[in-house]
Specification:
Layout: H1 3-15, E1 20-25, E2 45-52, H2 55-59, H3 67-92, E3 98-101, H4 118-124, E4 129-130, E5 136-137, E6 145-152, H5 171-175, H6 199-210, H7 222-226, H8 228-235
Antiparallel strand pairs: 1-2, 2-6, 3-6, 4-5
Length: 237
Amino acid sequence: MNVHITTEIKLFCKSIGADLVGVADLKPFRSFITLPENLLDPFSYAISVAIRLNDDIIDSIFGRPTPEYAEHYRAVNVSLDKITSKLVDWISNRKFNALAIPASKILDEERLLGSISHKAIARMAGIGWQGKNLLIISPQFGPRIRLATVLTDMPLVADQPLKNRCGKCKKCTDSCPASAIKNVGTESHYKTREEAVHLDRCYSRLKTFKNDPEIKATICGVCIKVCPFGRKASKKN
């Protein structure tokens, strides 16, 4: 493990546009579902990068996503993929292997799965804790972030998960337009997604937005807007 190279890699990520960066040890993920199932075999660590979402755009959401949010969502995903591509090149130039996982790409529509869970990686990388809405809640920006991941065999120093700070808050539960959030707390993480959220209700609502010609994305944003941590960040600006 190399403290210097870990610090260097975080500074590089922030220099090319990342707002938050963390490192996760992949050992705990060996039993996780990945697509393909041997995805993690060549790698030891995952680098989680996050970009902060625009407060004005998030604050404009009332009960449903706006066209501006949909466009911002797509633009931030593109920016994240550019960051991870540059990070892969940076690692490769130092003679290590790396693989970028796209910011938003569903490979299994039935189970709503991508290659690997960006949120699970981000939690272990200390970006934030898992909220009642299953999103990663960062201390700095709440859930107002988008995530991407780079897998690597570069010897790094892993960060540690953060303590869950949702407590008795019910903002996301009470505001969910699909009544999908169960208001179940956790000290670390949920064993299954269904433990915290009625996925069928959530995804049914998201599909209506994806089919909306003004949105065309599986997004909502209501629980992102109402989270006290995100709102605290926005009020400071």
